[in-house]
Amino acid sequence: MTAAAISQLHPAPPVGGGTLTMDDLVDLHRPHDRTTPRVRANVVASVDGSATAAGRTRDLGGPADLLVFDLLRQLSDVVVVGAGTVRDEGYGPMRLGGEAVAWRREAGLPDHPVVAVVSGRLELDPTSDVFADAPVRPLVLTHDEAPHAARSRLDEVADVVSCGRDRVDPRLLVQALVERGLSQIHTEGGPALLGDLVAADVVDELCLTVSPNLEGGAGPRIVAAREAMALRGLALDHVLLSGDMLLTKWSRRR
Ligand SMILES: NC(=O)c1ccc[n+]([C@@H]2O[C@H](COP(=O)([O-])OP(=O)(O)OC[C@H]3O[C@@H](n4cnc5c(N)ncnc54)[C@H](OP(=O)(O)O)[C@@H]3O)[C@@H](O)[C@H]2O)c1
Q1: Does 120 contact ligand 1 (Cβ within 6 A)?
Q2: pLDDT tens, 52-87?
Q3: Residue 87 CA to ligand 1 centre (angstroms)
Q4: Which residues on adjacent β-strands are paired with residue 238?
Q5: Is 82 near ligand 1, meaning CB less than 6 Å away?
Q6: CATH fourth-level superfamily of 33-252
């Protein structure tokens, strides 16, 4: 898969414009001001709104989705992911490929973004690849009431940071990351974490891939807030097309 298989539908491409290059994709997604903290999420959903197929995202994605998924990691300072997704998807180390590392060096960024796992119960295996093979010491974002023994085990492989009394408070999460110089915050979900982030209204941008599939209704939605909330208005930034897959980007209308 190369970027050449992705074309732009909105805003209308320049006359003569066709498929996008990797540089075009970077320009469409790069933060214009890295000093202003921003929270961006990237998710994939079936046409009927499911965030999973048979409990995972693998069958919903495709080469173009994967390309943007990797690019969004490349552009970020920190990748925040819920413990459920780490467990269900078997997350590996947050290690970028050679071209992405070269791009980051050119941009004056560290070789790899930091991974930050959000968990209250801390049922995370310190020997799993996401921790043991991490190129940069990971963060675990938890709360004051998290189990002490599990916390001590994870202390060996990660910086464990408390961001709330009995739950991770999304505003304290953002604050903790920005204080560490990690202002371009990217989250890969999952639905429960994204639900909390959206409910707290800290999500500035959403990249949503619409996967050309119907799932049938058993899977969760991409955002699973714990309580009803007011609508969060969005403005459409762009729509890209790759085969039958739509790659959209939205910004929070404030
Ligand atoms: N379609 C997509 O783009 C997409 C993206 C990601 C994941 N997924 C799918 O989503 C499913 C997992 O869903 P999920 O909702 O369980 O995922 P999740 O949001 O990644 O994980 C939920 C877990 O994260 C921790 N957590 C989240 N918010 C917290 C908070 N405010 N305070 C403390 N802990 C918090 C808790 O961990 P503890 O239980 O450890 O306390 C909670 O059980 C998987 O099937 C995965 O494949 C889909």
Answers
A1: yes
A2: 999 999 999 999 999 999 999 999 999 999 999 999
A3: 9
A4: 249
A5: yes
A6: Dihydrofolate Reductase, subunit A (3.40.430.10)
